[in-house]
## 1
Amino acid sequence: MQADPPSEHRASKKPSGAGSPSSQIDSGKAKGVVQIVAGAAVAAAGVSLCVLPGPGLAVIAGGVALASKGQRAYSGREPTKVERKLDAAAEKLGDAAKREAAKTARTVAREAPVVAEKVARAAGKGVVAAAKAGGKLAVAGSKAVARKLRDARHDGVR
């Protein structure tokens, strides 16, 4: 029969509570799992974009990068030098995408009353005329947004 360990060893054992390192590891693992699943979903969406119009290969690469980051978070492994550089580049690209999305949203918000007025005028002429005008306005709006994005890219290159 084995003897019980001395009572001083039992007393030194720390309880696992909310602030314990084990709960921090669990939250890191949970974050890693979420990133892995999200990365896989983004990569899967990228596969369909290879056939459909869109940046399929870029989306696949982004999904794989997110899944890789999730794997690091799950395992608790420190990123390598290359991974740190890729993470920094991804952060910069994400910030740039957010800025461009904000610009586009402001443009759409600014142009919305004009578009609504034209559609309302066309609606007074009948449903068919309104549908035709709406389609023409949608094409014109998408061309205007594309032109503004193209101009913004050219301004950034100079």
Note: Residues 94 and 112 are 26 Å apart (CA to CA).
## 2
Amino acid sequence: MTSSQVVALVISPFVAVFGVFFITSRHHISRVARQLRREQKQYVGPCTQSPTLMLVAGVAIVIAAALIAVGALTGVID
């Protein structure tokens, strides 16, 4: 295994865990962002985070992590 394959195999689980965390906590993040925006006029982003868009992003992150791991195991990543 090359060093880039080892790095890909080490990093991909962390990326997958982040994606799952993003999926599971999307409602809480959206609620806190809306509350900050309403009460303190603080902006967490350009617009309030949408749970649906955060779900899509989380799924995309998990799929990317899986593709990275598969690519490292099959030798596509050198």
Note: Residues 33 and 39 are 10 Å apart (CA to CA).
## 3
Amino acid sequence: MTTTTTAKAPNQSGAIQKAAAHNAVKAGEQPTTIKGWLKAYTSEIARALPAQIGPDRFNRICMTALTTNPKLGECTPASFIGAVMNAAQLGLEPNTPLGQAYLIPYRNKGRMEVQFQVGLTL
């Protein structure tokens, strides 16, 4: 039996943009793609992850999700990073064959956003 719970990524655009801008100052430029935002936010994601999941593995999983579902790349950076942070805080690997969690693109009031969905096996 599989139970699915849906939770939308919180609207953290201000905090995410401030953190990315802070990281961009170090790098010299602002991220322009979702992959760029993911790289800029790597240290924050690493701090949110539990010890058993390494940040390199988690980022690779997120990059693979972007590659396998190009619609994720069209989503707002705030919704994508918010969904990734939800998965990191829960210690779940999104869009893997384990089915622990999913990053799902959807249209909200004309904007593409990411929905974080948890899949639990009982």
Note: Residues 1-10 have pLDDT under 50 and may be disordered.
